[in-house]
Write a structure and sequence with these properties.
Largest sheet: 4 strands, mixed
Structural class: alpha/beta
Distance between the termini: 30 Å
Strand order of the largest sheet: 1-2-3-4
Radius of gyration: 25 Å
Strand content: 5-15%
Number of strands: 4
Oligomer: single chain
Number of helices: 4
Shape: elongated
Number of domains: 1
Order of helices and strands: HEEHEHHE
Length: 180
């Protein structure tokens, strides 16, 4: 299956996948809301970002480079600015994902503390045979397990997609960028 996906792309003489991007002008590569920002601080067009991420994800571990076809000719100085801005943008996305991961970890530890507190309180109050206290004890046990599950879900389920995105962003920011 992977071979069929890679066959959809052109390959260089060295066997690298070529991710081709066509646009009329350099400005088309960037968000229209960022017209006044310098190149190194501009946000890339969201469709371009999605296309790059999807393409790199699709080709897996294959070696690749990004090739831009622009109708307007651009000089080497502008090419370098565009290359730098693309790298900077994907470094920025990496930083955002890292921040999100740190928040998830911090929240997980909070959920663990809450879960352990409720579970411990449940066990301590569970010895009482009065109906109200027993209901409260069972409720705390459920709350404790739900909180612990949320913490474990972060480590077992949410962590993998976040690290996968980080690797994709890094591959894109480290990629070779050429202009036709």
């Amino acid at each position: 299956m992977k071979k069929k996906i890679v066959e959809r792309y052109d390959l260089s003489n060295d066997g690298e996948v070529i991710i081709k991007i066509s646009a009329e002008r350099v400005e088309d590569l960037y968000s229209q809301f960022d017209k006044k920002s310098s190149f190194s601080k501009k946000d890339l067009d969201s469709e371009l970002v999605t296309y790059l991420i999807d393409s790199v994800d699709e080709i897996g571990k294959e070696r690749f480079f990004i090739k831009f076809y622009l109708e307007d000719e651009i000089d080497e100085k502008l090419q370098n600015k565009v290359k730098n801005s693309i790298r900077q943008y994907f470094f920025y996305l990496q930083d955002l994902k890292k921040k999100m991961m740190h928040e998830e970890i911090k929240n997980s530890f909070i959920f663990i503390v809450i879960g352990l507190f409720f579970t411990t309180m449940s066990l301590l109050t569970g010895e009482d045979e009065r109906f109200f206290v027993e209901v409260l004890s069972e409720g705390m046990l459920v709350a404790g397990w739900v909180s612990l599950w949320e913490a474990m879900a972060t480590f077992l389920i949410k962590w993998l997609p976040l690290t996968k995105k980080l690797k994709l962003y890094k591959r894109i920011s480290d990629s070779e960028i050429v202009f036709a």
